Amino acid sequence: MRIVSLAGGIGAARFLRGLKAAAPDAEITVIGNTGDDITLFGLRVCPDLDTVMYTLGGGINEEQGWGRAGEAFTVKEELAAYGMEPQWFGLGDRDFATHILRSQLLSAGYPLSQVTEALCDRWRPGVRLLPMSDDRTETHVVISDGDGRRAIHFQEWWVRLRASVPAEQIALVGADEATPAPGVLDAIRDADVVILPPSNPVVSIGTILQIPGIREAVERKTVVGVSPIIGGAPVRGMADACLTAIGVETSAQAVLELYGSRLIDGWLVAEEDKDVALDGVVVEARPLLMDSPEATREIAAAALRLAGALPEIDG
Ligand code: GDP
Ligand code: CA
Fold first, then answer.
1. Which ligand is located closest to the Cα atom of residue 268?
2. Is the Cβ atom of 290 under 6 angstroms away from ligand 1?
Protein backbone atom coordinates (compact mmCIF):
# COMPACT_ATOMS: atom_id res chain seq x y z
CA MET A 1 0.00 0.00 0.00
CA ARG A 2 1.16 3.52 -0.79
CA ILE A 3 0.18 6.23 1.63
CA VAL A 4 0.77 9.96 1.37
CA SER A 5 0.37 12.14 4.44
CA LEU A 6 0.54 15.91 4.57
CA ALA A 7 2.24 17.04 7.78
CA GLY A 8 2.77 19.97 10.10
CA GLY A 9 4.76 19.49 13.28
CA ILE A 10 4.00 17.79 16.56
CA GLY A 11 0.45 16.57 15.90
CA ALA A 12 1.44 15.14 12.55
CA ALA A 13 4.66 13.57 13.80
CA ARG A 14 2.88 11.73 16.61
CA PHE A 15 0.17 10.56 14.23
CA LEU A 16 2.78 9.34 11.73
CA ARG A 17 4.38 7.18 14.39
CA GLY A 18 0.98 5.56 14.83
CA LEU A 19 0.55 5.23 11.07
CA LYS A 20 3.87 3.40 10.74
CA ALA A 21 2.76 0.99 13.47
CA ALA A 22 -0.66 0.51 11.88
CA ALA A 23 0.75 -0.13 8.40
CA PRO A 24 4.26 -1.53 8.86
CA ASP A 25 4.51 -2.70 5.25
CA ALA A 26 3.19 0.45 3.64
CA GLU A 27 5.31 2.86 1.65
CA ILE A 28 4.67 6.19 3.35
CA THR A 29 5.53 9.55 1.78
CA VAL A 30 5.22 12.58 4.04
CA ILE A 31 4.81 16.01 2.48
CA GLY A 32 5.97 18.48 5.10
CA ASN A 33 5.02 22.08 5.70
CA THR A 34 7.86 24.55 5.12
CA GLY A 35 5.84 27.75 5.60
CA ASP A 36 7.10 27.91 9.19
CA ASP A 37 10.73 27.90 8.07
CA ILE A 38 12.84 30.79 9.27
CA THR A 39 16.42 32.06 8.97
CA LEU A 40 18.01 32.63 12.39
CA PHE A 41 21.65 33.62 12.96
CA GLY A 42 22.22 32.97 9.27
CA LEU A 43 20.93 29.40 9.56
CA ARG A 44 17.90 27.96 7.81
CA VAL A 45 15.59 26.31 10.35
CA CYS A 46 12.75 24.00 9.20
CA PRO A 47 10.76 23.31 12.38
CA ASP A 48 8.08 21.04 10.94
CA LEU A 49 10.41 18.89 8.82
CA ASP A 50 12.71 18.49 11.81
CA THR A 51 9.89 17.60 14.19
CA VAL A 52 8.81 14.79 11.86
CA MET A 53 12.40 13.67 11.26
CA TYR A 54 13.38 13.66 14.95
CA THR A 55 10.11 12.07 16.11
CA LEU A 56 10.20 9.21 13.59
CA GLY A 57 13.97 8.88 13.93
CA GLY A 58 13.93 8.57 17.72
CA GLY A 59 15.69 11.87 18.49
CA ILE A 60 12.77 14.00 19.68
CA ASN A 61 12.32 15.55 23.11
CA GLU A 62 9.20 13.54 23.96
CA GLU A 63 7.77 15.79 26.67
CA GLN A 64 8.16 18.96 24.65
CA GLY A 65 7.24 17.41 21.31
CA TRP A 66 9.87 19.43 19.39
CA GLY A 67 13.64 19.77 19.59
CA ARG A 68 16.21 17.13 20.50
CA ALA A 69 16.24 14.87 23.52
CA GLY A 70 19.10 15.49 25.98
CA GLU A 71 19.52 19.02 24.72
CA ALA A 72 21.86 21.72 26.07
CA PHE A 73 21.71 25.44 25.32
CA THR A 74 25.30 26.68 25.44
CA VAL A 75 25.27 28.23 21.96
CA LYS A 76 21.99 30.02 22.62
CA GLU A 77 23.36 31.42 25.89
CA GLU A 78 26.56 32.55 24.22
CA LEU A 79 24.62 34.31 21.45
CA ALA A 80 22.45 36.00 24.06
CA ALA A 81 25.61 37.16 25.86
CA TYR A 82 26.50 39.01 22.66
CA GLY A 83 23.01 40.53 22.70
CA MET A 84 22.09 38.66 19.51
CA GLU A 85 18.41 38.57 18.62
CA PRO A 86 16.08 36.79 18.52
CA GLN A 87 16.28 35.18 21.93
CA TRP A 88 12.68 33.96 21.92
CA PHE A 89 13.28 30.98 19.60
CA GLY A 90 14.60 27.90 21.37
CA LEU A 91 17.54 26.36 19.52
CA GLY A 92 19.56 23.77 21.41
CA ASP A 93 23.15 22.77 20.72
CA ARG A 94 22.28 19.43 19.14
CA ASP A 95 19.59 21.03 17.03
CA PHE A 96 22.06 23.70 15.87
CA ALA A 97 24.13 20.99 14.18
CA THR A 98 21.16 20.09 11.97
CA HIS A 99 20.68 23.72 10.94
CA ILE A 100 24.40 24.26 10.31
CA LEU A 101 24.56 21.26 8.00
CA ARG A 102 21.30 22.17 6.25
CA SER A 103 22.47 25.73 5.68
CA GLN A 104 25.85 24.60 4.39
CA LEU A 105 24.24 22.24 1.87
CA LEU A 106 21.69 24.87 0.81
CA SER A 107 24.41 27.45 0.22
CA ALA A 108 26.34 24.87 -1.80
CA GLY A 109 23.30 24.87 -4.10
CA TYR A 110 21.44 21.72 -3.12
CA PRO A 111 17.64 22.04 -3.08
CA LEU A 112 15.84 21.59 0.25
CA SER A 113 14.41 18.23 -0.88
CA GLN A 114 17.91 16.79 -1.35
CA VAL A 115 19.15 18.37 1.85
CA THR A 116 16.25 16.82 3.75
CA GLU A 117 17.07 13.45 2.24
CA ALA A 118 20.69 13.84 3.36
CA LEU A 119 19.60 14.67 6.92
CA CYS A 120 17.25 11.66 6.88
CA ASP A 121 20.20 9.40 5.98
CA ARG A 122 21.15 9.81 9.60
CA TRP A 123 17.69 9.68 11.18
CA ARG A 124 16.12 6.92 9.07
CA PRO A 125 12.55 8.03 9.82
CA GLY A 126 11.10 5.04 7.95
CA VAL A 127 9.10 7.30 5.65
CA ARG A 128 10.06 9.34 2.62
CA LEU A 129 10.08 12.92 3.89
CA LEU A 130 9.62 15.60 1.22
CA PRO A 131 9.29 19.34 1.74
CA MET A 132 6.14 20.69 0.08
CA SER A 133 8.37 22.84 -2.14
CA ASP A 134 12.03 23.58 -2.77
CA ASP A 135 11.05 27.20 -3.25
CA ARG A 136 11.22 29.48 -0.30
CA THR A 137 7.80 30.43 1.06
CA GLU A 138 7.09 31.95 4.46
CA THR A 139 3.91 32.33 6.44
CA HIS A 140 3.48 35.93 7.54
CA VAL A 141 0.88 37.25 9.95
CA VAL A 142 -0.60 40.77 9.87
CA ILE A 143 -1.09 42.24 13.36
CA SER A 144 -1.71 45.65 14.89
CA ASP A 145 0.00 46.57 18.13
CA GLY A 146 1.93 49.46 19.71
CA ASP A 147 4.23 49.47 16.65
CA GLY A 148 1.28 49.89 14.25
CA ARG A 149 -0.12 47.52 11.64
CA ARG A 150 2.54 45.26 10.19
CA ALA A 151 3.33 41.79 8.91
CA ILE A 152 5.57 39.61 11.03
CA HIS A 153 6.96 36.13 10.49
CA PHE A 154 4.64 33.36 11.66
CA GLN A 155 7.19 32.21 14.25
CA GLU A 156 7.31 35.66 15.82
CA TRP A 157 3.53 35.64 16.21
CA TRP A 158 3.39 32.03 17.36
CA VAL A 159 6.46 31.72 19.57
CA ARG A 160 7.25 35.26 20.76
CA LEU A 161 3.67 36.56 21.04
CA ARG A 162 2.05 33.15 21.75
CA ALA A 163 -0.67 34.25 19.30
CA SER A 164 -1.89 36.71 21.97
CA VAL A 165 -2.31 39.54 19.42
CA PRO A 166 -5.14 38.70 16.99
CA ALA A 167 -4.02 37.85 13.47
CA GLU A 168 -5.78 40.10 10.95
CA GLN A 169 -4.48 38.12 8.02
CA ILE A 170 -2.31 35.06 7.47
CA ALA A 171 -0.53 34.74 4.13
CA LEU A 172 1.98 32.35 2.61
CA VAL A 173 4.44 34.74 0.98
CA GLY A 174 5.86 33.30 -2.23
CA ALA A 175 3.11 30.71 -2.67
CA ASP A 176 2.02 31.85 -6.14
CA GLU A 177 5.48 31.36 -7.67
CA ALA A 178 6.28 28.15 -5.76
CA THR A 179 6.15 24.71 -7.32
CA PRO A 180 5.83 21.37 -5.53
CA ALA A 181 9.17 19.74 -4.67
CA PRO A 182 10.34 16.92 -6.98
CA GLY A 183 8.44 13.75 -6.14
CA VAL A 184 5.49 15.43 -4.44
CA LEU A 185 2.97 15.26 -7.30
CA ASP A 186 4.16 11.79 -8.33
CA ALA A 187 3.76 10.48 -4.80
CA ILE A 188 0.23 11.88 -4.59
CA ARG A 189 -0.65 10.46 -8.01
CA ASP A 190 0.62 7.00 -7.08
CA ALA A 191 -0.94 6.95 -3.60
CA ASP A 192 -3.73 4.55 -2.65
CA VAL A 193 -4.82 6.98 0.03
CA VAL A 194 -3.95 10.47 1.25
CA ILE A 195 -4.21 11.09 4.99
CA LEU A 196 -4.55 14.49 6.64
CA PRO A 197 -3.28 14.00 10.20
CA PRO A 198 -4.34 16.20 13.11
CA SER A 199 -2.27 19.20 12.08
CA ASN A 200 -3.09 22.86 12.07
CA PRO A 201 -5.66 23.27 9.26
CA VAL A 202 -4.55 26.83 8.47
CA VAL A 203 -0.79 27.15 8.89
CA SER A 204 0.21 23.51 8.29
CA ILE A 205 -2.22 21.62 6.04
CA GLY A 206 -3.68 24.83 4.60
CA THR A 207 -0.19 26.02 3.70
CA ILE A 208 0.77 22.81 1.90
CA LEU A 209 -2.48 22.94 -0.08
CA GLN A 210 -1.61 26.46 -1.25
CA ILE A 211 1.38 25.31 -3.28
CA PRO A 212 0.01 25.40 -6.84
CA GLY A 213 -0.93 21.91 -8.03
CA ILE A 214 -0.97 20.11 -4.69
CA ARG A 215 -4.65 20.65 -3.79
CA GLU A 216 -5.78 19.61 -7.28
CA ALA A 217 -3.65 16.46 -7.11
CA VAL A 218 -4.96 15.53 -3.65
CA GLU A 219 -8.59 16.16 -4.67
CA ARG A 220 -8.31 13.32 -7.20
CA LYS A 221 -7.46 10.80 -4.47
CA THR A 222 -9.25 9.05 -1.63
CA VAL A 223 -8.58 11.41 1.28
CA VAL A 224 -9.24 10.75 4.96
CA GLY A 225 -8.72 13.49 7.54
CA VAL A 226 -8.38 13.33 11.32
CA SER A 227 -10.00 16.28 13.07
CA PRO A 228 -7.54 18.37 15.09
CA ILE A 229 -10.48 19.95 16.92
CA ILE A 230 -12.33 18.03 19.63
CA GLY A 231 -15.46 19.41 21.28
CA GLY A 232 -14.91 22.92 19.94
CA ALA A 233 -11.28 23.33 21.03
CA PRO A 234 -7.81 22.41 19.80
CA VAL A 235 -6.35 19.48 21.72
CA ARG A 236 -3.13 21.44 22.19
CA GLY A 237 -1.64 24.57 20.71
CA MET A 238 -3.41 27.63 19.38
CA ALA A 239 -5.09 26.48 16.19
CA ASP A 240 -8.20 28.43 17.30
CA ALA A 241 -6.25 31.70 16.85
CA CYS A 242 -5.44 30.69 13.25
CA LEU A 243 -9.00 29.62 12.45
CA THR A 244 -10.42 32.86 13.91
CA ALA A 245 -8.01 34.84 11.71
CA ILE A 246 -9.54 33.34 8.56
CA GLY A 247 -13.11 33.61 9.86
CA VAL A 248 -13.62 29.91 10.58
CA GLU A 249 -15.19 28.62 13.80
CA THR A 250 -13.13 26.28 15.97
CA SER A 251 -15.10 23.09 15.49
CA ALA A 252 -14.69 19.73 13.77
CA GLN A 253 -17.63 20.72 11.53
CA ALA A 254 -16.13 24.05 10.46
CA VAL A 255 -12.70 22.53 9.74
CA LEU A 256 -14.35 19.86 7.59
CA GLU A 257 -16.24 22.58 5.69
CA LEU A 258 -13.01 24.57 5.33
CA TYR A 259 -11.33 21.58 3.67
CA GLY A 260 -14.51 20.85 1.73
CA SER A 261 -16.01 17.74 0.19
CA ARG A 262 -13.96 18.05 -3.01
CA LEU A 263 -10.91 17.37 -0.87
CA ILE A 264 -12.17 15.16 1.94
CA ASP A 265 -13.88 11.78 1.49
CA GLY A 266 -13.68 10.46 5.04
CA TRP A 267 -13.47 12.47 8.27
CA LEU A 268 -12.65 11.06 11.69
CA VAL A 269 -14.10 13.04 14.59
CA ALA A 270 -14.14 12.49 18.34
CA GLU A 271 -17.21 10.94 19.95
CA GLU A 272 -18.46 14.29 21.25
CA ASP A 273 -18.52 15.54 17.63
CA LYS A 274 -20.54 12.61 16.25
CA ASP A 275 -23.18 14.96 14.74
CA VAL A 276 -20.72 16.46 12.27
CA ALA A 277 -21.95 15.92 8.70
CA LEU A 278 -21.24 17.11 5.18
CA ASP A 279 -22.68 15.91 1.87
CA GLY A 280 -20.25 13.62 0.08
CA VAL A 281 -18.16 12.88 3.19
CA VAL A 282 -18.32 9.76 5.36
CA VAL A 283 -17.93 10.84 8.98
CA GLU A 284 -16.90 8.38 11.68
CA ALA A 285 -16.79 9.15 15.40
CA ARG A 286 -14.24 7.42 17.63
CA PRO A 287 -11.71 8.25 20.35
CA LEU A 288 -9.20 10.69 18.81
CA LEU A 289 -6.81 11.46 21.64
CA MET A 290 -3.25 10.44 20.81
CA ASP A 291 -2.47 9.85 24.48
CA SER A 292 -0.52 6.60 24.05
CA PRO A 293 1.29 4.83 21.20
CA GLU A 294 -1.50 2.20 21.10
CA ALA A 295 -4.29 4.79 20.97
CA THR A 296 -2.45 6.65 18.21
CA ARG A 297 -1.93 3.45 16.22
CA GLU A 298 -5.65 2.70 16.54
CA ILE A 299 -6.56 6.17 15.22
CA ALA A 300 -4.29 5.63 12.21
CA ALA A 301 -5.71 2.13 11.68
CA ALA A 302 -9.24 3.60 11.78
CA ALA A 303 -8.26 6.18 9.16
CA LEU A 304 -6.95 3.42 6.87
CA ARG A 305 -10.04 1.26 7.43
CA LEU A 306 -12.29 4.18 6.61
CA ALA A 307 -10.28 4.84 3.44
CA GLY A 308 -10.60 1.19 2.45
CA ALA A 309 -14.36 1.28 2.94
CA LEU A 310 -14.83 4.33 0.72
CA PRO A 311 -15.77 3.98 -2.94
CA GLU A 312 -12.60 4.02 -5.03
CA ILE A 313 -11.86 7.34 -6.63
CA ASP A 314 -9.96 7.00 -9.87
CA GLY A 315 -6.78 9.08 -9.89
P1 GDP B 1 1.20 21.15 13.51
O2 GDP B 1 2.51 21.80 13.27
O3 GDP B 1 0.15 21.68 12.63
O4 GDP B 1 1.22 19.65 13.51
O5 GDP B 1 0.80 21.68 14.88
P6 GDP B 1 0.61 21.09 16.26
O7 GDP B 1 1.28 19.80 16.38
O8 GDP B 1 0.92 22.14 17.23
O9 GDP B 1 -0.94 20.92 16.29
C10 GDP B 1 -1.60 20.12 15.48
C11 GDP B 1 -3.08 20.13 15.73
O12 GDP B 1 -3.36 18.82 16.16
C13 GDP B 1 -3.60 21.07 16.79
O14 GDP B 1 -4.68 21.78 16.23
C15 GDP B 1 -4.06 20.18 17.91
O16 GDP B 1 -5.30 20.56 18.46
C17 GDP B 1 -4.24 18.84 17.25
N18 GDP B 1 -3.89 17.76 18.14
C19 GDP B 1 -2.86 17.66 18.99
N20 GDP B 1 -2.91 16.52 19.67
C21 GDP B 1 -4.04 15.86 19.24
C22 GDP B 1 -4.66 14.62 19.58
O23 GDP B 1 -4.21 13.87 20.44
N24 GDP B 1 -5.80 14.29 18.89
C25 GDP B 1 -6.34 15.11 17.94
N26 GDP B 1 -7.45 14.72 17.30
N27 GDP B 1 -5.78 16.28 17.61
C28 GDP B 1 -4.64 16.66 18.24
CA1 CA C 1 3.71 23.93 12.37
1. 1
2. yes
